[in-house]
Amino acid sequence: MELVDIFPAFGLRIDCGPVTLRAMRESDVPRVCELVAEGIHEEGAQPFLVPWNVSKTQPVESLQFYYRTWATFSSEAWTLLMAVERDGVMVGAQDVKTEKFGIVRHGETGSWLGLRHQGRGTGTLMRQAMLTFAFDHLGAVEMRSAAWADNPSSHRVSEKCGYVANGYQLLDRQGRRARQDDFVATPETFVRPPYEVAVTGADAFRRAIGLDGER
Predict the structure, then answer these.
(1) CA angle centred on 112, ends 107 and 116, rounded to 5°
(2) I want to staple 8 with a disulfide (CB 3.0 to 4.6 A). Which of 63, 93, 137, 208 is the partner?
(3) Domain-located, residue 191
(4) Mean pLDDT score of the chain, rounded to an integer?
């Protein structure tokens, strides 16, 4: 028996042209910390609800976050953590989280890229790859995303992927009120990537989240 037999999410891989999404592993954490230390957004920007990347103890906090996410994964509530590679080099991360997916058939995507790897279309491709997997292999009926109103780059990626505006929320962002814009994509609005998307490990993952036998 191998680890992937125990935790099928570790066997998932999504290839989309020069971009590959593969399940995040413990061995990826040092690279995550390197990318974060190099910077993942311009100075002064606040793209995240919680500024996890600027914490002085970020390396151990990231490791703890991954352990918690793996440990609490279940068919009722799960977060899929994927390392993003471009041309074989890890450049960021993509995730999707959901609860009661077998019933509601929707989830929310989140992502980040190392600053020096931005501006090459990677952010759009990795999101399109994840949406292709969600719609074509998991039977999602809609996928959601959110970004602060002052984060135009995230808005542009959402638009390129076919998300449409879905309202907004006023939230506490590091002690100040800020507007978070919500977006939703459906199979009908989704703008597919210009590359074929190949998925490995989808059947085992479907069984792990309670979709065995469904299509």
Answers:
(1) 160
(2) 208
(3) yes
(4) 93
